[in-house]
Specification:
The structure is a homodimer. With about 350 residues, the first copy, chain A, is an alpha/beta fold. Chain A has 13 helices and 12 strands. In chain A, the strands form 2 sheets. In chain A, strands 2-1-3-4-5-11 form a 6-stranded parallel sheet, with helices on both faces. In chain A, helix 10 packs across helix 11. The mean pLDDT of chain A is about 90. At the A-B interface, helix 4, helix 5, strand 2, helix 6 and helix 11 of A face helix 4, helix 5, strand 2, helix 6 and helix 11 of B. Strand 2 of chain A pairs antiparallel with strand 2 of chain B. The first copy, chain A, binds a DNA duplex (16 and 16 nucleotides) through helix 2 and helix 4. Chains A, B: This is LacI family transcriptional regulator. Chains A, B: Keywords: DNA-binding, Transcription, Transcription regulation. Chains A, B: It comes from Oceanobacillus kimchii.
DNA sequence: CTGTTAGCGCATTCAA
DNA sequence: TTGAATGCGCTAACAG
């Protein structure tokens, strides 16, 4: 390996001078800069990141923590997309991106501890938000810079997060259904302890209330990424005396399952029942019918979260709430009834 | 920050002794070990990874390179899944996982150069394989340990890779169609310059030949993750005098699009036309009809690739071909006709 | 079984 | 504008 010393020797300057031209220090003459740079080129020099990190006490890498593998949500294209968003800014800003996962919550905790206490990252992005999360607590305790993608359960205004306004989004998309003449609207969500599900359902009920449509308990169905239990649940809903004429589904992936189940039950979307959804995953465009869905700008969620920890040094002192705008993508899963 | 010196001082031993108990060196008495460990506990000591890395000249982290963001394939759940697989072994073996991406091929190249030349990673996993890839060439030149997931275009037996036997898989699934009584079988693939597509189509033609079924040019259709051009292409195929009674689709995601398009054309799967697919993404189970598809064990692809660079120190001297077995998942998208 | 010394490769303070 | 010296935190001979 060719080090700073080698090129110093070759150029006849001191190592510190070389170090300075690497940093493009203004107090170095252009001619020595040129001379040194040529030597670097010739000898094939490349700065050792580890050594630099040790010297400057910063790694210019941020850790990205995935939910535990047990979490089914990991199958969601959401993650590829947000990783792309994060990667785009880490790359541009010359940062690296360290990915951490684990089978269990325990493993993840150990992992985070390792990279944080081991000074292996300068900041952390949490790609999940769980209630009473040890990781979050640890980060807060250590006063370590981190940002959560999604809304933290306990908004203790000591944590920065980037999220959509899912309540508003839920209301918007439900209102669209109402405006197009639907009034028996069901809601199908994922795990009911996820904040995102709760928020979207909240928006759903808000819209119903504003339109003076009664909220029926039997129209609220939760399903863990369906297929098994989901099927019967949907069948049940469809056998109600007042069968829904529309359904709000909290995730595109679930929508695909729902459409499949409806078809099995002999119902087609949107002729027999309209459907709206969230996320605007690639799939929502491809499936038949193409989904009318809320684009939550996943990529941007990633971008903003990365910017948050990198550009502004997140600290307990200046927590931020970054809300990414959403908008409705109108496609073919809603039938105008009036 | 509490360092090795601090706890040395506190315990009255030398820094090297402390270092040794960290490494659990056998030549340190149990009592000093205990004493030192207690001090570490009390003072909240945690080894600085960067410093250690510099000293031992190894980072215990492996770089994972995603295809350029331009690549549509990034939307594929494939990546989350393989990342999970890789992560499971890096985690278990106490390694870290550095994720690199970039908008363009150029960016990726710069990134790889940075982490390799900067000694930031001990090995590289390439999550793509492109023809005449600068990155691959660079890695080979530098004699840097790396492994490719998927089959390298030019199998120069100097590179280690982990892949499925996609030719065999293509033949297997096509044969299943033939055995169930189909004989007008079309093939729908993604970009035709992807090795995986080529291999699967090869298997498809192999199966046809073995069954003495003629291979029709007009039954071969390629589509870049359809919707736009894909629709008409499928419609065209359906209008042929000899309409196919089955179709082999090279990716679950594409299958979803295909099913959608068939429906739009008034055809249903598997009643009017059978469909088989590849990957066994989560979706293939959820959609209606549930897909008969090849499980390529994505997770395992990740696991094996990680094991390859970590456990055995990959080198030019011992390239390996690791083939992950595949198997057919029988579900509801194929109609038995005989 | 443990301490001393040196060094990993780079950045930075202090002089000059 | 440049050089010498020191240190980042840890590991690894080499002694003892």
């Amino acid at each position: 390996m060719v080090t700073i010393k080698d090129i110093a020797k070759a150029t006849g300057v001191s190592p510190s001078t070389v170090s300075r031209v690497i940093a493009d220090n203004s107090r170095i003459s252009e001619e020595t800069k040129a001379k040194v740079r040529k030597a670097m080129e010739d000898l094939g020099y490349f700065p050792n990141l580890t050594a630099r990190n040790l010297a400057v006490k910063s790694t210019k890498t941020i850790g990205v923590i995935l939910p535990s593998s047990a979490d089914k949500s990991l199958q969601n294209p959401f993650f590829s997309e947000i990783l792309r968003g994060i990667g785009s800014v880490t790359h541009k800003l010359q940062y690296s991106m360290m990915l951490s996962s684990g089978q269990t919550e325990e493993e993840i905790y150990a992992e985070v501890q390792r990279i944080v206490l081991g000074s292996y990252v300068d900041g952390i992005i949490l790609l999940y938000s769980r209630l009473n999360d040890r990781v979050t607590q640890f980060l807060v305790e250590k006063d370590f810079p981190f940002v959560i993608v999604g809304k933290p359960q306990e908004v203790n205004d000591r944590t920065t997060y980037v999220d959509n306004d899912n309540i508003q989004a839920g209301e918007d998309i439900t209102s669209h259904l109402i405006e197009t003449g639907h009034n028996r609207i069901a809601f199908i969500g994922g795990a009911k302890d996820l904040v995102v599900t709760i928020d979207r359902m909240q928006g759903y009920t808000n819209a119903l209330k504003k339109a003076d449509i009664p909220i029926l308990e039997e129209y609220l169905i939760h399903t863990e990424f369906l297929k098994s239990g989901g099927k019967e649940a949907v069948e049940k809903i469809l056998r109600l005396p007042e069968r829904p004429d529309a359904v709000v589904v909290s995730d595109d992936l679930i929508s695909i399952g729902v459409i499949g189940m409806l078809e099995e039950s002999g119902l087609s979307v949107p002729e027999d029942i309209s459907l709206v959804s969230f996320n605007n995953a690639y799939l929502s465009e491809i499936i038949h019918p193409a989904l009318t869905t809320i684009d939550i700008q996943i990529y941007k969620l990633g971008v903003e979260s990365a910017k948050a920890i990198i550009e502004k040094k997140i600290g307990i002192d200046d927590p931020k709430r970054i809300i990414i705008p959403h908008y409705i993508i109108y496609r073919d899963s809603v039938k105008r009834k009036s």
